[in-house]
Amino acid sequence: MQHDLFDTNPSHPSDPPLPPDERMSLLRDQIRRHDYLYYVQDRPEISDGEYDRLFRELVDLEQAHPELLTPDSPTQRVGAPPLDELGKVPHERPMLSLDSLVDQEDVLAFDQRMKRELQADDIDYTAEPKFDGLSVELVYDRGTFIRGATRGDGSMGEEVTLNLRTIRSLPLQLRTDGHPPSHLAVRGEVYMRLDDFHGLNRLVVERGGEPFANPRNAAAGSLRQLDSRITAERPLVVTCYEILAMDGTPPPSHVDELDALASWGLPVPVLRRHCASIDGVMAFHRETDQSRDQLPYEIDGIVVKVNRRERQEQLGMKSRSPRWAIAYKFAPRKEITKVHQIIVSVGRTGTLTPLALLNPVEVGGVTISRATLHNADEVARKDVRDGDTVKVERAGDVIPAIAERVPVPGETRAAPFSMPDHCPVCGAAVAREGAYIYCTGQAACPAQLKGAIEHFASKPAFNIEGLGKKTVAQLIDQGLVRDLSDLYHLRHEQIMELEGFAERSAALLLEAINQSKTVSLDRFLLGLGIRQVGRHIATVLAREFGSLDAVMSADQERFLAIKEIGPEISSSLVSFFQESSNRQVIDRLIRSGLTITQTDTHHKDASLPLSGKSVVFTGGLAGLSRNEARALVEQLGGTVSSGVSKQTAYVVAGTDPGSKLEQAKRLGVHILDEQEFLTLIKDKERD
Ligand code: IVH
């Protein structure tokens, strides 16, 4: 069905020129219409060049007549200065989550339950894709987009209005011909299309950054930026699927609700279907699962909703999810192939990861030739060996995983896989931390060098201004820096040759490197990048030992005698200083003319932003391991404890949190989700 969109007949060339205000208003309407056709309807009517001309003309007119500029002009999507932090806003109505089902029987049982509770024989449902992105609230007042927020904890979210404004498929103005309510809050999903995601990752990698693991992370990272100019460069899209609140009577069914949203100019799921019964839902699930690899974006299932609002209201909700809707997920995509060989890769933090090289196999439209086995315990648990037949699984992530081994009757198997006791890259000894095995070579290991130097140069360590990720990558790729001490032998003309450097910037960098030659012991220890040694522990060590020699000659027992140091930290310290390559790097650093001073008062314990605060984690974290999370807290002087009490400063609740979350709620302890925790850490690091 095609709507006759905004009334924007282009003016005829022979018409007399319009006064600027009218011309500007006409141009805005035209641009909005073309934005809608291009981004929402996916059927552009004019070429990019013609669009650019309209846009340019409007920008020029707005510059010539700044008094006629309106905030809802399509030119005003970007431009605000970066924020210090994302503010918190309450949602107009709670943003609920959905119960997830995977098995067909459970979905049939859901249908039975609906029939029973509604005392009805026929129930019609709506089915639509479950977009794999992040959910947002969009608020329109008198047709103008005024505010948007992430879901947060469901009742409060982070305000991301400026960032949302940069999304071209999000109308800044609702269409008046659809008579939108004077006040409207809608819920939608922000996500990234697959081709855009891969394009973004290529760019990130070119610039020396870490690629995003999957489109969902990329979308979340892009939307939660403090600088909307960064978001504007990220190819985000939005689709709306629920009215959270509105003036007037809401539409009588979900079908009508989506039609209404569409008539107001909002993008809605294209693949939606009205199903007369649960059989129709099953068919939609089957068809969508089959075609999901052809879709330009990731979906992880379908969402099934009882169509009629009156029935939805009758069914009501549970504490966090409605009774009238479910997510009917797809089984993860798995294929069978053979492991050619298991190899071990070393990441930038030194973690050794077993990787299975596979006979190439297509899983969900992507050819896969390697899969992660995560860690030694995982390999042992799954008992995967060279030559085994396995099921590989891809859940939208860039690196697929091995789901399980498939026993083949009569097969002769290779010997069990075991992790090496030396780093395959640098040959240093390996050590174990929980399920993870890591190389103790650290800064001396080429695989870890980039990460090590970035850490060395970072603010709390050697604080070398101007030595960021990009420059570090250039220095290493050009072979100018092979270990930490090489930084102190760089020459002006070598830096000048790096891309982006000129006379003055090279001199500034050299000056910053030179200044870092006088460094306090705690910063020096921190800069070495010893595992488990963050700002807090580095300060404790400097205070306890007073000199580098004393730290280097201490044994396990001596470290353990310090209150703040437990067995993991002490064994990490001992194995670091035992490794001869590390001792050599330290030696070379000292010979490069470093002067180590007594602990600088600036970093005294008590001044660390989390000192005296204890943090408790419950549930799984998506983006980092427990150890990494602990390290972040400790670097800022905080401690991680296992039990929640009134004294606990924060409880970080991941997925499937345990009883600790309940206890935190009871005691009124500040609760954070993973993102909020990371934001907190970032904020505190800046303090
Ligand atoms: S409806 C009360 N519809 O899936 C109904 N959710 O927990 C609330 N999602 O966080 C959600 N696509 O972010 C709905 N078509 C869709 C969806 C959808 C994706 C997300 C949503 C929510 C999660 C389920």
List strands and helices in order, with pairings.
Blueprint: H1 20-40, H2 48-64, E1 88-90, E2 99-101, H3 104-118, E3 125-131, E4 134-141, E5 144-150, E6 156-158, H4 161-165, E7 183-192, H5 194-206, H6 215-223, H7 228-232, E8 236-246, H8 254-263, E9 273-275, H9 278-291, E10 299-306, H10 309-315, E11 325-329, E12 333-346, E13 351-363, E14 366-372, H11 376-382, E15 389-394, E16 401-405, E17 430-433, E18 436-439, H12 449-457, H13 469-477, H14 492-496, H15 503-515, E19 518-520, H16 521-527, H17 535-545, H18 548-553, H19 556-560, H20 567-578, H21 580-591, E20 595-597, E21 614-618, H22 626-635, E22 639-641, E23 648-653, H23 659-667, E24 670-672, H24 674-686
Parallel strand pairs: 2-11, 19-20, 21-22, 21-23, 23-24
Antiparallel strand pairs: 1-6, 3-9, 3-10, 4-5, 4-7, 7-8, 10-11, 12-13, 12-15, 13-14, 13-18, 15-16, 17-18
Helix pairs in contact: 1-2, 12-13, 16-17
Bound molecules: 2-(butylsulfanyl)adenosine.
